[in-house]
User: Fold these one by one.
Assistant:
Number 1:
Amino acid sequence: MEQIIRTVRDFDGALVVVPEPEGAFPRIAWGDAFFYYAPDGSVPHNVQPYGTIVTRNHPGDTASDLDPPDRWRVNIHVGRARFRDLVGEDPRTLDGRPRDHRAVDRVMPHPVYGAYGWICVVTPGDRTADTVVSLLRAAHDDARRRSARRHEPVRPPEND
């Protein structure tokens, strides 16, 4: 987990937020990590992180069984096209078939946000570590492009 956090911190313009006790974040987020494209070093407003690491079960999100020691999950927004390439299904039409979201070192649809183009890996290992880093880099680059579009100057309409 720490290696992934260090790697993402090295991405140009990355902001990694790891809430700690007594900070401004709620207790449920303590120890988790949130990845943003934020070259100014501030958490962007009205923008979701492009990736997260969760270290425990959250209300409504227990399928990965993250409460036992040494279990954690990387979540990455990959979009529809990459999701299809990785999972073999369209995220908008996930069939609801049973999946073992407790399985480690395996790329699969996020148990809650899969329909929105999110994948996850529980405790990445030899099979998925490089893929996770590659997907986080691509998600970071996607976030950078979205940020650039949001900050493009508005050009006045041309007069005919």
Note: Residues 34 and 52 are 5 Å apart (CA to CA).
Number 2:
Amino acid sequence: MTEDEIRAFVAASAGGRRLIGIDLGTKTIGLALSDVGRQIASPLETIRRVKFTPDVARLRLLCEAHQVGGLVMGLPLNMDGSEGPRVQATRSFVRNMKPLLDLPVLFCDERLSTAAVTRALIAADASRAKRGEVVDMLAAAYILQGCLDQIRGLLGDEEREERDAY
């Protein structure tokens, strides 16, 4: 994600509204929610995928209930940074979702998010069953938090530059 993409997303997503982070899998969709100030990401829920329309309907319901202003979609790039079939499937999901849920979307690199979360859960001695229940929404929170940190870093740098110019 480039600085221009971040700026465009921040401008398009309603200020003072939360963001939802999405870890799109083939069997589940992990979701995380930011606070209104867009500082902290928290796990929200895991949607068990059924079919596209009910999956998006659940996402839309959550967006309305939590007054969401934008979506942060994990982009499953290959380890070398190239785009493979999973990236194409993610972009296709977003294209098909747009008519049903018209919110700005920012794609964020999700490489190693599930691995990082799984390592943390293992270190916390979480059972395999417990890890399976929470890993997708924790991965979504990991993705969203990384994006929030990048947004804050970029906007914080600009605010400091403006302040120093006076």
Note: The helical segments are 3-12, 52-65, 85-97, 113-123, 128-165.
Number 3:
Amino acid sequence: MVFGRPDRGIRPQAAPLTLKLLVAGGFGVGKTTLVGSVSEIMPLRTEELLTEAGRPVDDTSGVEAKRTTTVAMDFGRITLREDLVLYLFGTPGQDRFWFLWDELAQGALGAVVLADTRRLADCFAAVDYFERRGIAFTLAVNCFDDAPRHSAEAVRDALDLDPEVPVVMCDARERESVKRVLVSVVEHALATGITARTPATV
């Protein structure tokens, strides 16, 4: 408003588009680290110390130094552009907390399935979960310092992923690396949605 008159040249700024993404994978694969490294707000974490009582059900092979585990979810937020905000929900990795996944998956555009080449089979359950529910996902290999290196195609073949599923290498500790993973998820999810809505031509 200029001198009591509305300025017709100024338009109210549109609210940004907000999208929900899940971050899933096996126990100790780096989900909490990924959400924390990229979140622009203080991430919400629901971690508890590992105890002797959980030793029979929490397989720490390959991640022996791990001392805590997520028991509900991680939550973070990142603004990719002025008009695009992502809300990240990290899922718990252990089987006994999978009942939470259905609640967390409601309204999700897509997901990151984080994998560790030392324990690649641990991400099968997450891959199967999103495939069965038709939720687009990117398979992100978290390149731990002491983990064996494999090509994206070798990982794809080992997990028997569909050709259109993106497979990317990342470092869950590095913000820019994680941002590339999130962009991949959004692009793949949007492309998958467009394909699903487009009638096939004969």
Note: The radius of gyration is 19 Å.
Number 4:
Amino acid sequence: MSAAYELRVAESETDRAACFAVRRDVFVTEQGVPQELEYDTYDIDAVHVLAVREDGTALGTGRLLTGAAAAVKNGGAEDVGALGRLAVAKAARGLGVGAALVGAIEEAARDRGLSAVDLHAQTHALGFYERLGYEAYGPEFPDAGIPHRAMRKTVG
């Protein structure tokens, strides 16, 4: 597989559907997260970022929550965005797509005047986020039956 791909904010219905398809493949099919937990009301107003190959194949996605929606996830700070639903298609893993998506989400957070980005990382992914500058805080907790830790990075 070629490593050439484009990152963009998913504004069209087609792009948003591609984001949801990657999430379904990774979280629902691979990880067994119940579909009703994977998709939520935050998806409506979230900034969705999509990595897509030239041929239109969706490689990965992630979302940024802002304002009150983010505050629900990060302990009440409305100047801190919440990165979530980061998913990379199995065939695209190891190409740097995940790190590129995180960078694009951080850029979207800066563009919106946010000071930091918070996320809830599956514990097996802590090292990935630490390499990107995130620091874990607080205790481990379950989300959809999967152990997670809260993490944060200053971006503003």
Note: The chain has a mean pLDDT of 93.
